[in-house]
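Title: Comparing notes on inverse folding

I've been comparing how different people in this forum approach sequence design from structure. To keep things fair, I'm posting one structure and asking everyone to reply with a full sequence. Here's the target:
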């Protein structure tokens, strides 16, 4: 059995920071987001840097991963890692595999559809086998016992829970819906309504995914708590994962890591600081629109009025 920890949550909830922190633990291996290929983020592989500050194709670690995957009969190219659940033929199979977790009925419909769509079901098994090979390869190279996947999407975690050799635990990372909406507006150039809806949809997706995991395999973690009390919060997370507590890994930039993900992977600082600019930056009107959408779920996670 392989112990696998999955970080689930909205894109602007602090998952990169948590990935770096947990990946600095001597028992935890990670490469960041499994589902995200660098292609599409930069035009050429030469311009995409691994978090070790080397162009991705020149990174020693990724070359070892490529060889390890080949030995397992899984040709691998980091530039086009072929780890996404989609069906190249398109059509219904593609829709079934890519549909995101939006309601409790979806997985039931998906299971039924997979039985009548052999191509989709084959594709699902093929990608899961690749993920399994990659996890084994990375654990072998890094010599660690727990694999951390920070892919974030709820439906991916549900798919991966079907791999018999995976013993999965989920960290649902949440952050105040108003803060995340502001980040989305700023980074994606979208309006408050769309930003707030995306936060609600993602967290509802996570809440639906929760039914596929035993309660002791699920941890809801607030990003604000991680920033306010890093040691204490991490001790709780290590306990949940089942690895011994380890202090003083705040200088995570000093540890060797090869992480794929957002731009923060290349930053040089390991300062943990909560960004609260949204409190000043959002206009009254924007705040009103956002709160109309996020308040019920925000309350559930313990976020109150300003
Ligand atoms: Zn690297």
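Reply #1:
Here's my take.
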């Amino acid at each position: 059995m392989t112990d696998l920890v999955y970080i689930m949550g909205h894109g602007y909830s602090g998952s990169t920071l948590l990935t770096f922190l947990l990946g600095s633990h001597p028992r935890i291996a990670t490469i960041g987001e499994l589902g995200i290929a660098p292609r599409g983020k930069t035009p050429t592989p030469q311009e995409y840097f691994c978090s070790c500050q080397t162009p991705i194709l020149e990174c020693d670690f990724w070359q070892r991963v490529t060889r390890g995957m080949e030995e397992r009969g899984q040709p691998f190219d980091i530039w086009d890692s072929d780890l996404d659940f989609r069906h190249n033929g398109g059509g219904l199979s593609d829709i079934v595999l890519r549909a995101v977790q939006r309601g409790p009925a979806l997985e039931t419909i998906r299971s039924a559809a997979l039985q009548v769509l052999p191509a989709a079901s084959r594709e699902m098994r093929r990608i899961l086998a690749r993920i399994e090979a990659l996890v084994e390869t990375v654990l072998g190279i890094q010599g660690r016992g727990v694999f951390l996947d920070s892919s974030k999407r709820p439906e991916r975690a549900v798919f991966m829970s079907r791999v018999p050799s995976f013993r999965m635990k989920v960290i649902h990372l949440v952050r105040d819906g108003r803060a995340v909406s502001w980040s989305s507006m700023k980074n994606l150039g979208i309006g408050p309504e769309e930003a707030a809806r995306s936060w609600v949809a993602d967290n509802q997706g996570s809440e639906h995914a929760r039914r596929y995991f035993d309660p002791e395999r699920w941890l809801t973690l607030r990003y604000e708590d991680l920033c306010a009390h890093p040691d204490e919060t991490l001790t709780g997370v290590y306990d949940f994962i089942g690895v011994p507590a380890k202090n003083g890994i705040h200088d995570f930039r000093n540890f060797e890591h090869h992480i794929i993900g957002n731009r923060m992977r290349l930053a040089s600082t390991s300062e943990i600081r909560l960004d609260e600019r949204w409190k000043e930056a959002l206009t009254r009107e924007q705040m009103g629109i956002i709160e109309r959408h996020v308040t019920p779920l925000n309350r559930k996670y313990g976020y109150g009025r300003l």
